[in-house]
Design brief:
This protein has about 850 residues and is of the alpha/beta class. Helix 17 runs parallel beside helix 20, helix 20 (about 750-770) packs antiparallel against helix 21 (about 785-805) and helix 21 (about 785-805) packs antiparallel against helix 22. The protein is rod-shaped and about 165 Å long.
């Protein structure tokens, strides 16, 4: 049953590919190939044969299978790629060099079989089976598996593209046959679990995708278009690029794919998407075939100027230089190299040599439009080649190759030769008849490390990949007016992160511009704003929103605004935080100057009144009003006027403690004196009653003691306040958002209101007593004046409380100073102004006779 399954599988493979069964089945069944094996396009016999497969044509002839007859032999069709033929011949050149060396495989003659894959998976698989089994037409049961155990080739070079290489690598990996590709860049091929025998001399697209994203980011393009081949190369490569681009914050407006064999309508749709797009930069992960078709389609109706970003698959293809739509294109290509003697090798071709190879025959006939075989009667009417053709006069990619891809083939061929040398050679000689398996070559390939004649290091990492090194190519117009490839930068993945990419010269951009083109969905948000993503659009499409109050952004394209520290506030542009201006009632403030004038004026008036009273101290009106308390009251009023100055200026520890305590103590001293004078009036008239000795109990000593006692209570309150929680300066950050109010904190609010409350209590008590004494007789009765002064005092301080609480910033201090000055002026005006008026302007009334002769004062 197991044997039957094996045979069925074998027959299925034979039906599809026309190949022989695996060698080990030859012992079980006698069989022959159903179709002719695929003949190589270039070949040479040798002791050991190295395989090669290249995409010289882009199409394979196809037919619709009817399953009623044997399928036709696979054949390539379409025009030949002269560039790919030149690359294939680089393998011939490398083997020619190796065979002429004495230090590498001495005594061994290498041969080669180079096939054309037509870019078709079916052809690539068929050739891969031939490389594994050979091309013998018969297998019979008399031969043993051991005889056919070795592969037809120990290793092979190719294929040129990723999709056929993937198919070949899956099959060849089962047999351990090493495959060294020169141009299959799909990152998927680095997976050694799936492709254990695959190596390459071109970097993986993983690195190219990272390099492309690096370039796009470097030039500030955040809004791009993307188009790719609908193949493993394009799909895997673009997926890697899009991932790298996303990490760099790059947005893709569209990502389109197509393949050259798809209907033309698909290509037209892709071209229309490009024409309608707003992105001015387009990344093309395209193979040469798809790129040619796309450029031809765009040429029909050219889109607005685009900055093309290309991959190594097309950016160094000279055939595309004729498309003006790509002028200024940039992209990464394999570093240019020179292989000494290679150009001469390519040009050393005669008609006789060309006839030995189907590919060279086709090349000769296509290049010179003649027939080497002399078939003048052919349908195309080609003339017979007469030998006058000069290959050196040709101007095509075969003779104008820049040798970038050719060097990769050169390195791949040398890598295989070094691996074979490591298996069958020792220090002095090689064993031509040595038996070895492909696995041994595979093991040696993992360890090869050498430098080629043209100075390139060849080695493979654990994934079978080389170090990623690229040239940045720019399509520039030369002095002749034609476009040419110019190397303008370099990328080396082995360098530290952030230093991989470097520019070496100026870039000529699309349309010959010297300024880097812009391609953004939204213009950059300046400092002072933040980005707000537009609903339903990529993150690169956004609106610029000004930072909120109190917040800044100090760089372009900020995602968020940052709140300034508590003592800072944004400038007008909201791009930096500035220290908030500190506000306090400074000495140079107009309001401060005004209050200072009133304060000093009040103190001066008090001093002047005291001088007038002292000069007239023996006069009846001064003696009748308790001169000692009057002088003490004038002294306290002077202090009250002057203590308001402690509220002006930058608050400090000492000024905050002094202003409140000085204010509280001086005002209590002032009110105590007024209260004492009120009590004197009451006691004086009380003493006139028969049998009263009131003045005995409230004489001058008692008056002094009462003033001292009332003041001492306030001193004790202030000392407790300063001891427990004194008023200290603090920065009020809550009053205003944009500035700091520097003010004196109350410390203990209880202490502050206790000081004010005690002053208010004494003032109220004084007002009540004065009010009761206002109708007492005699002209020198001060009660009515004290009543008015206390009424003004209380009114001022009652209105002070709500004004103090509601006043903003420095005006809080101004209100407090105003209350001090207003109450002080009220006291000095009501109590001393009438007396000074009599002393200075009515001296005739300042007599004892006049005062004692007066009747009782009229009621208020």
């Amino acid at each position: 049953m197991q044997l039957t399954s094996i045979l069925i599988m074998c027959m299925s493979i034979l039906w599809i590919t026309g190949l022989s069964p695996p060698a080990c089945i030859a012992d079980l069944v006698s069989c022959r190939l159903w179709a002719e094996p695929q003949r190589p396009g270039l070949y040479m016999n040798g002791d050991l044969i190295i395989g090669g497969i290249f995409c010289v044509h882009f199409y394979a002839r196809s037919e619709q299978n009817t399953y009623k007859k044997q399928p036709l032999q696979l054949q390539c069709s379409g025009s030949m790629s002269f560039r790919e033929l030149s690359i294939a011949r680089a393998m011939e050149f490398a083997i020619y060099e190796i065979n002429n060396r004495t230090d590498l495989l001495p005594g061994i003659m290498l041969g080669y079989q180079i096939h054309d894959s037509c870019g078709a998976v079916s052809m690539a698989i068929k050739v891969a089976f031939q490389f594994a089994n050979g091309m013998e037409p018969f297998f019979n049961d008399t031969e043993s598996c051991s005889k056919s155990a070795a592969a037809a080739v120990p290793a092979l070079v190719g294929e040129s593209t990723s999709t056929p290489s993937i198919s070949m690598a899956r099959m060849l990996g089962l047999f351990g046959i090493p495959q060294v590709s020169h141009y299959a860049t799909c990152a998927c091929l680095s997976d050694k679990r799936q492709y254990p025998a695959f190596f390459r001399t071109i970097p993986s697209d993983h690195h190219q995708a990272a390099a492309l994203a690096n370039v796009v980011k470097h030039f500030g393009w955040t809004w791009i278009g993307a188009v790719r081949s609908d193949t493993d190369y394009g799909n895997y490569g673009m997926a890697s690029f899009l991932k790298a681009a996303q990490e760099e914050g790059i947005c893709v407006e569209y990502s389109e794919s197509y393949y050259r064999t798809q209907p033309r309508s698909k290509l037209e749709r892709v071209a229309n998407v490009i024409r309608r797009s707003t992105a001015r930069v387009i990344v093309a992960f395209l193979a040469a075939g798809e790129m040619r078709l796309l450029l031809e389609e765009l040429a029909r109706q050219p889109p607005p100027p685009l900055q093309w970003i290309g991959t190594e698959a097309w950016i160094i293809q000279s055939e595309f230089l004729t498309y003006n739509v790509c002028a200024g294109a940039i992209g990464f290509g394999i570093p240019r190299s020179v292989m000494g003697g290679f150009r001469e090798f390519l040009l050393d071709l005669s008609p006789e040599q060309a006839l030995k190879s189907p590919l060279l025959t086709e090349f000769w006939e296509s290049s010179f439009s003649c027939s080497l075989k002399g078939k003048t009667g052919s349908s195309d009417g080609a003339r017979e080649c007469d030998g006058s053709e000069d290959i050196r006069a040709l101007q095509n990619p075969y003779t104008q190759s820049q040798l970038r891809e050719s060097n990769l083939v050169y390195k791949a061929t040398y890598a295989i030769a070094h691996a074979i040398h490591g298996v069958i050679c020792n220090d002095t000689q090689c064993n031509k008849s040595a038996k070895f398996t492909p696995w041994q070559i595979l093991d040696q390939l993992k360890r090869v490390n050498f430098t080629t004649k043209n100075g390139f290091q060849v080695s493979f990492d654990s994934n079978g990949d080389p170090v990623a090194v690229y040239d940045l190519i720019d399509w520039q117009v030369n002095e002749d007016g034609a476009m040419d490839f110019v190397t303008v930068g370099h990328y080396d993945s082995s360098k530290p992160k952030g230093q991989e990419f470097s520019l070496s010269r100026a870039i000529s951009w699309m349309g010959g511009r010297t300024v880097v083109p812009r391609s953004v969905c939204s213009e950059s948000c300046p400092p002072g704003t933040r980005k707000a993503v537009q609903k339903g659009k990529p993150v690169c499409c956004y609106d610029c929103i000004p930072c909120a109050e109190g917040e800044i952004s100090n760089k372009t394209d900020s995602l968020n605004c940052v709140r300034c520290p508590s003592e800072f506030w944004p400038n007008t542009q909201r791009d930096s935080c500035l220290p908030k201006p500190v506000e306090f009632l400074s000495w140079d403030d107009t309001l401060s100057i005004t209050l200072t004038v009133f304060s000093t004026t009040g103190a001066f008036i008090a001093v002047c009144v005291a001088a007038v009273f002292y000069r007239n101290r023996t006069s009846p009106i001064v003696r009748a009003n308790n001169s000692e308390l009057s002088f003490l009251l004038l002294f306290s009023l002077t202090l009250c006027f002057l203590c308001s100055l402690t509220f002006i200026g930058r608050p400090s520890d000492w000024s905050c403690m002094l202003r409140h305590t000085a204010f509280g103590i001086t005002f209590v001293l002032c009110i105590s004196c007024v209260l004492g004078k009120t009590l004197v009036v009451l006691m004086a008239f009380r003493a006139t009653l028969p049998g009263s000795n009131a003045m005995k109990w409230f004489g001058p000593p008692q008056q002094r003691l009462s003033v001292l006692a009332f003041t001492l209570i306030q001193v004790i309150i202030c000392v407790l306040w300063l001891t427990i929680s004194p008023p200290l300066p603090f920065k009020n950050l809550k009053q205003y958002k944009e500035r700091i109010v520097l003010e004196c904190g109350l410390g203990s609010a209880i202490g502050f209101w206790a000081v004010l409350g005690y002053i208010g209590f004494l003032a109220l008590l004084c007002f009540i007593l004065a009010f009761l004494a206002r109708k007492l007789p005699d002209n020198f009765n001060e009660a009515k004046f004290i009543t008015f002064s206390m009424l003004i005092f209380c009114a001022v301080w009652v209105t002070f409380i709500p004004a103090y609480v509601s006043s903003p910033g420095k005006f809080t201090v101004a209100v407090e100073i105003f209350a001090i000055l207003a109450s002080s002026f009220g006291l000095i005006t009501c109590i001393f102004a009438p007396k000074c008026f009599i002393i200075m302007f009515r001296p005739e009334q300042n007599t004892k006779k006049h005062i004692m002769g007066k009747v009782s004062s009229k009621p208020l």
